[in-house]
Amino acid sequence: xxxxxxxxxxxxxxxxxxxxxxxxxxxxxxxxxxxxxxxxxxxxxxxxxxxxxxxxxxxxxxxxxxxxxxxxxxxxxxxxxxxxxxxxxxxxxxxxxxxxxxxxxxxxxxxxxxxxxxxxxxxxxxxxxxxxxxxxxxxxxxxxxxxxxxxxxxxxxxxxxxxxxxxxxxxxxxxxxxxxxxxxxxxxxxxxxxxxxxxxxxxxxxxxxxxxxxxxxxxxxxxxxxxxxxx
Length: 231
Fold this sequence. Notes:
By secondary structure, this protein is mainly β. It is about 0% helix and about 45% strand. A four-stranded antiparallel sheet has the order 4-5-6-7, with no helix packed on it. The protein has a four-stranded antiparallel sheet with strand order 8-9-10-11, with no helix packed on it. The protein is globular and about 50 Å long. Keywords: Kelch repeat, Repeat. InterPro entries: Kelch-typ_b-propeller, Kelch_1.
């Protein structure tokens, strides 16, 4: 994922060192094991890692990459009824939003990144696990796809959260195929999704749609790969 002109990723190198990396410099900022069910974000000069019942934060400003890896600056407990496991996360301004997951598929929680206080979000109309989420604008989050934990079916529906009114609103255009564990980004007034799974089938599709959802999704690229867990 991209920070301010930087790329960050979770993974491991050829020496088996797991953690949070800056690419292509291969700087290991935090050495720590992680799961594909975790949340990892680069937000406002911070690295944020959500796992289980905890959110961990590293402030990059003032830290020397030559002295890395560093330890986390903050380890914050998530409210007890919420667990990060197949949860999606997105940052807007000075807030971290956590949405859905295996244990809490309809729930969401917002963390104020200044006061480190939590606020519950309104329940989603559809439970989602292994969904993707992205900031549409300064006031709107889009949640896409995922799996319905009640019946195990992969979803193609998308919903928007207006953080001012605290209302969930359906996105006008559903994804053309049900998808989970996919990647999502916003670029040039379009939402892009790529990779992921449809049921147990790995997908290499790349789709895009206008941010207003008024037009159809366009499939313009396909990766011939059997390993496309990208969310």
